[in-house]
Amino acid sequence: MSLPEPVQHALVRVSHSVLIDVDALAGVRERFDDEQAASLAGYLRSAQSPNTVRAYRSDWIAWAGWCQAEGRQALPADPLDVAVYLAVAADTVKPDGSPAFGASTLERKSAAISAVHAANGLPSPTRSDVVRLTLRGVRRTRKSQPRRKRPVLLDTLEALLNERPQAGPARARDALLLLVGFAGALRRSELAQIEFSDVTVDMDPRTHEPLLLIRLGTTKTDQTGKHQQQVVLPRGSRRPTCPVCAFADWADVLGGKELSETGLHRCHGFEAVVRQGPVFPVVNRHGGIGTKAMSGRAVAELVKRYAVRAGLDPALFGGHSLRAGFATQAALGGASDREIMRQGRWTNPRTVHRYIRTANPLEDNAVTRLGL
Ligand SMILES: [Zn+2]
Description:
Elements: H1 5-14, H2 22-31, H3 34-45, H4 50-70, H5 79-91, H6 103-119, H7 129-144, H8 154-162, H9 169-183, H10 188-193, E1 199-203, E2 210-216, E3 229-234, H11 243-254, E4 281-283, E5 289-293, H12 296-309, H13 321-332, H14 337-344, H15 349-359
Helix pairs in contact: 1-4, 4-6, 5-6, 5-7, 6-7, 9-11, 9-13, 13-14, 13-15, 14-15
Bound molecules: zinc ion.
Zinc ion (ZN) binds next to helix 11.
């Protein structure tokens, strides 16, 4: 990548440290001896963590690049230019529709511009009202936007399942991921961490129907198993939404077998194959299955990606949607608080009540008895 000349110039200025006033330091060298000046320079360089300096540096490059494109001056900067720059950055969105920069990142961008001005002995443009008010406006706007993710209800879940690719390993993996996340009321990090050694195929002693037992939270830091939890996933009544069938399908794909979707359940009599490693490994765009587990973030992105394909607003869906969807759909199905709390491992009834209110705002509500 070749950078425009003014950007290159700005880069050279900040290559050592964005935070040191080089001219002032030269003045120190004139008045004191080399050893004294070097001592001071060393401590000044250590004043900021390397991460901060690195972040400031890339923030400064971005700012200088924007100024170059807009025909504005980066140093010294006009406060109004800085305010417009920050507002444009605040409006920048990622492909999934979520903001590209959080409020704290925008504040850091502003701090970087301020720091480089200070290092050059210039007054900071970010202290002006227009910049401060812009940042305050961004913070308030972000705060008022609902952060809670929309629950994936059963019909949404089926819509997402329908958007899976027609072939390739992601088809089987993603069916299992969506079904386990929904039926298990799992958090995205819990989903991502499941290993094959955590999954047992068992039988319901009353109905003799197959079910999946999934052990959760077997993290590397918790070898004692003290905080271990387990969820049980019964067989689904329909083949496309049967977690046990989805598990059998995915085990087949990982074992190199062709996926056969006949529409008939295959979970009866299915015996788990012995496998190691993550249940949800990364799958690259060419259909190559990796050895590493998907990250919690990748789980959230997967839900968003299917939401887009299903014509839904991805900003409203995320990793928490499957867990929230479980509680809401269960409440719609008439489950009690206690039942919902058990599978979801919720300990605070208030959390569950929130989902139930979302599910059916009029149920158990005195407003229906007002005689209006
Ligand atoms: Zn089945």
